[in-house]
């Protein structure tokens, strides 16, 4: 499941949410940037929170030596996704998702 999670979150962040942001900009771009960005984040946050909750559950579960490589996979995936998360969920409305992503990365390391 962790391997699939790594693949899926990477595709979701780099392709799906990046494309959704572009679409939101095209459709709602005539509005104030803070307004359309907030609308996008509200729509996208539901799925993103599910990804983060799964990662948090894995990171908080019992640590076993055989799980070390899977935790490293999660850390590497998050490390690759954080720059895109910061770009896609920019602004005040995306602050919580950016913070949760960084917190998950820290939680995996501890």
Describe the protein's architecture and organization.
With 110 residues, this protein is mainly α. The protein has one domain. It has helices at 2-28, 33-60, 68-88, 95-109. α1 (2-28) runs antiparallel to α2. The longest helix has 28 residues, at 33-60. It is elongated.
Question: Main traits of this protein?
Answer:
110 residues, mainly alpha, 83% helix, 0% strand, elongated
First-residue to last-residue Cα separation? 21 Å
Overall number of structural domains? 1
| Overall shape | elongated
Content-based structural category? mainly alpha
In a nutshell, what does this entry contain?
With 110 residues, the chain is mostly helical.
Write the layout of secondary structure elements.
Blueprint: H1 2-28, H2 33-60, H3 68-88, H4 95-109
Helix pairs in contact: 1-2, 1-3, 2-4, 3-4
């Amino acid at each position: 499941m962790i391997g699939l999670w790594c693949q899926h979150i990477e595709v979701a962040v780099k392709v799906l949410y990046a494309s959704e942001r572009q679409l939101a900009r095209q459709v709602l771009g005539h509005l104030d940037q803070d307004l359309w960005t907030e609308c996008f984040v509200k729509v996208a946050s539901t799925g993103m929170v599910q990804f983060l909750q799964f990662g948090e559950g894995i990171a908080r579960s019992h640590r076993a030596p055989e799980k070390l490589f899977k935790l490293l996979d999660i850390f590497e995936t998050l490390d690759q996704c954080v720059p895109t998360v910061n770009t896609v969920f920019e602004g005040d409305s995306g602050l919580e998702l950016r913070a949760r992503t960084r917190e998950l990365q820290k939680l995996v390391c501890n």
